[in-house]
Amino acid sequence: MEEEIHHGPASSTDYISHHLTNLHTGEGFWNFHIDTIFYSVLLASIFIGLFFSVARKATSGVPNRTQNFVEILVEFVDAQVKDCFHGQSRLIAPLALTIFCLVFLMNFMDLVPVDLLPEIGLMAGIEYMKVVPTTDLNTTFAMSISVFILIIFYSIKAKGGVGFAKEIFFHPFGKWLLPFNFILKVIEECAKPVSLALRLFGNLYAGELIFILIALFTLSIGANELSEILHNLLTPGSIILFMVQLLLGLIWALFHIAVITLQAFIFMMLAIVYLSMAHDTH
User: Fold this and answer.
1) Is 281 helix (H, G, I), strand (E, B) or coil?
2) What is the pLDDT of residues 80-139, one digit of tens each?
3) pLDDT (tens digit, 9 = 90+) per residue, 210-248?
4) Is the pLDDT of residue 280 over 80?
5) Which residue of 50, 85, 161, 221 is most buried, as measured by CB atoms within 10 A?
6) Is residue 260 part of a domain?
7) How many domains in the chain?
8) pLDDT at residue 237, as a whole number
């Protein structure tokens, strides 16, 4: 759902551009998105803190609601790993749980009213603030490249250096088409992190943009003084726009709950499947 009143840029273009701009420092390769880093660390800390607290206070008796919720998550992820992963590794289930929970928390920030945290940031002197880390390609590619590194690591561990080299150069068409085999393998492997990153980014970026477009319904009632805001808000046209925005925002938010959950699940499942393929030997 969206915040009802906007005090930001005067035009729709400026408003959209402002919301899609990261708070950053540095130039070129060393350009860091401070808001993305802050919210990623914050959400990761919440995830780690919650699970650590539950694990420390866990009881074998009747669990409380928090412990019951965490146990359901752990059992759900563990079941997916058992169904899809055919190798032997103690890392995969914790990794899958971390991916699902962290991606979900990052996605969930898209349900925070689009103007709430940026307006708080403006009052604190922070000009730009994007609060959804998964709408930043740096975040989605960082996670997908991390999974890709694990894929290569487990491929070499399961098949050995020689076996991995044979798979790159001799499959699927044998030694007579070695260059073609190599090109196909490179494309196949590079497609994994690219598809993981772009799928997550694209869905969340589109969702964020729709929330921003819905918020534009009441952009015209923004003002600098509280009395002026209240006066503009109570006009018949503004009331109609507000009701339309509220209805559309509620519908999209309810639908988007399924989207953010599904995207976290897909990212986790593809990571499990790719790591399972890395353990397979021909």
Assistant:
1) coil
2) 998 888 777 788 999 999 999 999 999 999 998 888 888 888 888 888 899 999 999 999
3) 988 888 766 654 444 434 444 555 566 567 767 777 888
4) no
5) 221
6) yes
7) 1
8) 59
Indicate which residue of 195, 220, 224, 238 is catalytic.
195
**Catalytic (active site) residue 56:** no
Question: For this structure, is 224 an active site residue?
Answer: no
29 located within any domain: yes
In the set 22, 138, 146, 199, the catalytic residue is: 199
Is 2 within the bounds of a domain? no
What domain range includes position 254?
12-279
Q: Exposed/middle/buried for 194, CB within 10 Å: 0-12, 13-18, 19+? A: middle
Is position 1 within any domain? no
Integer Cα distance of 178 and 114 in angstroms: 52
Checking if the pLDDT of 57 tops 90, the result is no
- Residue in 144, 203, 238, 276 annotated catalytic: 203
Tell me how far apart the alpha carbons of residues 242 and 19 are, in angstroms, rounded to a whole number: 20
Q: Which of 64, 67, 44, 46 is nearest to 55 (CA)?
A: 67
Would you place residue 78 in the very low, low, confident or very high pLDDT band (cuts 50, 70, 90)? very high
